[in-house]
């Protein structure tokens, strides 16, 4: 970006300074933009620029046009890759080919779940299917694979490749190999058929895992009917009601919602068999071995060692946590004092509330959405020299009028990319917090320009009211910081290849930047810069932040052990066939890695939707948290606003996306190579009192 254009950004956005709430609180431009109710000027002469500024996407039919254009360009690039001499240009051509498809497919993948107009959602869904089919064909295109193999099999040419190009070439080759490209025609066809079958099974299981269960109204005591949705003569149960103070309501919900569905059970069993068969067909010991290639853990054996060691180190604390819960249950329900799985979430919450007064409504007035965005802006400015600048979207650029657009601008590098903030609840919008890559960053050889990354952050926050801006609970605020960690990973990466841009990296590394942001979100030195009452301007008391941090350690070992159980279950399901049902495996693993009794005639695994997107990788959250904890304690706990450390973090971890081995990035940041024991110790030490030494010195 030119110096003139950067200056225009600064002048344009400084002029937005706004006073809200009777001038008692003054917000920065980005804070004011998020605390104000959205207002769009109606300009009938303004041209519809299309979703995300893509001209074709001004109407649903435009998806077909965008798809056809992408497929034409794909054909041209395939021909170019197959006819060119092997060299760096081969990998560049592959990346451009990937970019052509991803720019349309990733955008469509988001629109199919987020757009309020069914016509747009349907058109986007068709695009996803069409491009997905093309990708499958490309992954089994022998001539295309040969052009890459000619490069990697030539020692002289391979030696000339820089590390990033070599890694990207290897990643493209891995995509070919897991599709069975190296097999003979008959086996390759079998691999393709298995892959197609798995797409259907994945979708069937994902849909089924979220479907509610029904039971006759007469089967449930009448005085409890009000706790559940009714449908004629049936009670419909679509969740676990884990926060209900009534232990009978929790038990009923648990037993009914988790009641085995024979059809879905068959789907899961078949899905796991097909995954194993496909993995072994293309040369791996198991699906787990295939899934973990290129990750920090590398093998299922390492994952299981990590989970077993963590279990051993937590065992005494976990036993104490369960004893506290049992004692609390005896106190609350003397006649039903056995601790069951449906009690864990509720009782751990009761124990936290009893020990620390952390009622969310006490915190929310200090955590307006605008103040939190201002806090993020301040944090990024101090760590990276980056500002978040609110921009007015053009006509047709966004899918809902309450979507905000942020330009991410570096003080010397200029515009880095765009973040679209789809933060507010609306009908038919998925109730989940997530980050979507719409367009990846890459160096465009054809233009000499850098293709700027574009992402969407999706939350489900309440709308502002006439009397107050959107007020966040501490949990909502942490989720906002978490998702913004993903966004900044996308923005601050400056990879040459979009195939490894931002969050396109190993799953067990991808959550490190987002989890690290949670530590900033609970450090008073960071919070004190933005958390102030939306009416009075008073700062959030330090003692309240201290209570919040300490409360998280209550039953922390039991909470972690539950995640270990899920991760172990995922590993066992994706190992060699067990010759026993998924329910028998669950009962066994629940006894060994959790401890609370299995409830007969339940099948929790049928609600384990993470088996689809995180198959054999559910452990990733625990390992990422261990790395984030180590980075925080070693690099940021002394001074969370240290610019030098922020620049080092960007240079060593954020800048590379997936272009560097994940453990090498961790090693670069920590200046040493951590062991599995180090990861375990990092997680265990978080449960110690006074872990946040700076915060814990405060009163209360």
What can you see in these coordinates?
By secondary structure, the protein is α+β, with helices and mostly antiparallel strands. Among the domains are: 51-182, Glutathione S-transferase Yfyf (Class Pi), Chain A, domain 2 (Up-down Bundle), CATH 1.20.1050; 205-283, no CATH class. It contains 29 helices and twelve strands. It has a five-stranded mixed sheet. Strands 3-5-4 form a three-stranded antiparallel sheet. A two-stranded antiparallel ribbon has the order 1-2. A hairpin with a 3-residue loop joins β7 (404-410) and β8 (414-424). α3 (62-83) packs across α6 (142-152) and α22 (556-573) runs antiparallel to α23. Residues 1-24 and 691-700 have low confidence and may be disordered.
Based on the model shown, name its key terms.
single chain, 700 residues, Glutathione S-transferase Yfyf (Class Pi), Chain A, domain 2, 29 helices, 12 strands, globular, disordered N terminus
Topology diagram in text:
Layout: H1 3-14, E1 18-20, E2 25-27, H2 29-35, H3 62-83, H4 88-114, H5 118-138, H6 142-152, H7 155-159, H8 163-178, H9 185-209, E3 213-216, E4 229-231, E5 234-237, H10 247-257, H11 262-281, H12 287-291, H13 300-332, H14 344-355, H15 360-363, H16 369-384, E6 386-391, E7 404-410, E8 414-424, E9 434-439, E10 442-443, E11 450-451, E12 454-461, H17 474-492, H18 507-510, H19 512-521, H20 524-527, H21 542-551, H22 556-573, H23 582-593, H24 610-613, H25 620-636, H26 643-654, H27 662-670, H28 676-685, H29 693-696
Parallel strand pairs: 8-12
Antiparallel strand pairs: 1-2, 3-5, 4-5, 6-7, 7-8, 9-12, 10-11
Helix pairs in contact: 2-16, 3-4, 3-5, 3-6, 4-5, 4-8, 6-8, 9-11, 13-14, 13-22, 13-28, 17-19, 19-25, 22-23, 25-28, 26-27
EC number: 3.4.24.59
GO molecular function: metal ion binding; metalloendopeptidase activity
Family: Belongs to the peptidase M3 family.
